[in-house]
């Protein structure tokens, strides 16, 4: 190691930072974006089953009706809603609004709470009209 590299400051890592709502929502936005790739495969699977015929469609519908399938669909719904709200938050920032630290923190918390509330509302309405 040379003298130049010894004197350079080390870059801080996640273990040094205290998690704050905006940081957590940023990480969750990335995670939900990646999860939506998996969820899109599920939607494609369902559409392919619908196009393949009644027997295969019935089997896929049975899978989505199991407890595992319902948990996966609930998680996909939450990821979709959470990512949508995070995207709207980023769109607002792109327009130059919401940079104030306290407002940004409140918006991050609202994103987390709103995604859970909207997901529950979607599922309640879905079961009510079913």
UniProtKB/TrEMBL annotation:
Highest rank taxon of the organism: Bacteria
Topology term for the membrane: Multi-pass membrane protein
Gene3D superfamilies: Fumarate reductase/succinate dehydrogenase, transmembrane subunit
Transmembrane segments: 35-56, 62-86, 107-129
Record bears the keyword Isomerase: no
Cell location: Membrane
InterPro entries documented for this protein: SQR/QFR_C/D, Succ_DH_cyt_bsu_CS, Succ_DH_cytb556, SuccDH_FuR_B_TM-su
Cofactors, names only: heme
Keyword Nuclease in annotation: no
Keyword tags: Heme, Iron, Membrane, Metal-binding, Transmembrane, Transmembrane helix
Position of the signal peptide: none
Subunit-structure text: Part of an enzyme complex containing four subunits: a flavoprotein, an iron-sulfur protein, plus two membrane-anchoring proteins, SdhC and SdhD. The complex can form homotrimers.
Family the UniProt entry places it in: Belongs to the cytochrome b560 family.
Cited function: Membrane-anchoring subunit of succinate dehydrogenase (SDH).
Protein name per Swiss-Prot or TrEMBL: Succinate dehydrogenase cytochrome b556 subunit
């Amino acid at each position: 190691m040379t003298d130049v590299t010894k004197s350079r400051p080390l870059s801080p890592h996640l273990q040094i930072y205290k998690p704050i709502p905006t940081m957590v929502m940023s990480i969750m936005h990335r995670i939900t974006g990646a999860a939506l790739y998996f969820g899109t495969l599920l939607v494609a699977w369902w559409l392919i089953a619908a196009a393949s015929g009644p027997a295969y469609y019935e089997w896929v519908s049975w899978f989505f009706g199991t407890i595992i399938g319902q948990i996966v669909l609930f998680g996909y719904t939450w990821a979709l809603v959470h990512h949508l709200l995070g995207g709207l938050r980023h769109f607002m920032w792109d327009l130059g609004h919401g940079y104030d630290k306290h407002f940004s923190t409140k918006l991050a918390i609202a994103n987390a709470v709103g995604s859970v509330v909207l997901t529950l509302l979607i599922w309640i309405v879905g079961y009510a009209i079913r």
